[in-house]
Input
Amino acid sequence: MAAAIVLTILGGPALLHVPAANETKAREARRERTYRALLEKYDPFGLELGATLKAVEARLGPPAITARLDADCEMRYYGSVEHGLMGNRNLMWLVLVFDKDKVIRIFADDFVDYGKIKKLEEGLAGGGGT
Output
């Protein structure tokens, strides 16, 4: 329940909304639950080599970036720009290499090209974003 303070300002009362401590704690708890769920979602040990593109996207959703390497091979970046900016972005991104729609490589942490992700982050920080 929201708390409010009534102030008298030159000529009449004014209502000032002050968020209750419980609202702030609830919002922080929701943010923490979301962050923990994303950590689990983007855990590289939750995926297996040989997984199909369909199975990966059922778990991770669509990629933020796709880069074709050759006719049958592509690299896909999965992650959360918003939550990567709020916490540890190294834990929020996976790069999977697919050959004929099957996972052949899984990259995480220091093995991710964050230069590509930086463009997405700048777009989000500048009001654009994904």
